[in-house]
Design brief:
single chain; mainly alpha; 2 domains; 50% helix; flat; ribosome biogenesis
């Protein structure tokens, strides 16, 4: 049994609704965080904010006059940028910019790219490999799983030369004798 609240406690809690808590209305957010194994919630909020800004810019471009040369130029610039980052599949039209969501950014994170390159069996192990320093993108060793990989950098995701995992993969593929 709970004691009756004192007057000043009731005054403090008058503005708080414990039944409809604001943070509980984030089922989609929790689903995305769990699906992509995002540890920092701030990353998700950044992706959400970025995707909202992209959609707003696309809407402003769409509101411009169709005959305006600036509209065509800015549309091509925006689509080129979104395509090179990997947020949209093609550079066809501005409607693709409306489909950019926080999940689009999550799909460009390094662990997800490692999965698509078959460097790891699941996101959890990919994140572990990254945090332990087994993965590099180009010459840089990446230890942050929130690292976003562009289309150009996708080809340069590989194991660190001194990595035991690389040695294990080479042993499995019987390539160790070839490189030494």
């Amino acid at each position: 049994m709970v004691r009756k609240l004192k007057f000043h406690e009731q005054k403090l809690l008058k503005k708080v609704d414990f039944i409809n808590w604001e943070v509980d209305n984030n089922l989609h957010e929790v689903k995305v965080l769990r699906r992509y194994h995002i540890e920092k919630r701030e990353d998700y909020t950044k992706y959400n904010k970025l995707s909202r800004n992209i959609r707003e810019v696309a809407k402003k471009i769409r509101d411009l006059d169709e005959k305006d040369g600036f509209r065509a130029h800015s549309t091509s610039l925006l689509l080129e940028k979104l395509y090179s980052v990997g947020l949209i599949p093609t550079k066809q039209n501005l409607a693709l910019a409306d489909k950019v969501t926080a999940s689009s950014f999550c799909r460009r994170r390094l662990p997800t790219i490692m999965l698509s390159l078959r460097m790891a069996q699941n996101l959890k192990t990919a994140i572990t490999f990254i945090e332990q320093g087994h993965v590099r993108v180009g010459p840089e060793i990446i230890t942050d799983p929130a690292f976003l990989v562009t289309r150009n950098m996708e080809d340069f995701v590989t194991w660190v030369d001194s990595s035991k995992i690389k040695l294990h993969v080479m042993n499995y593929n019987e390539e160790v004798g070839l490189h030494n």
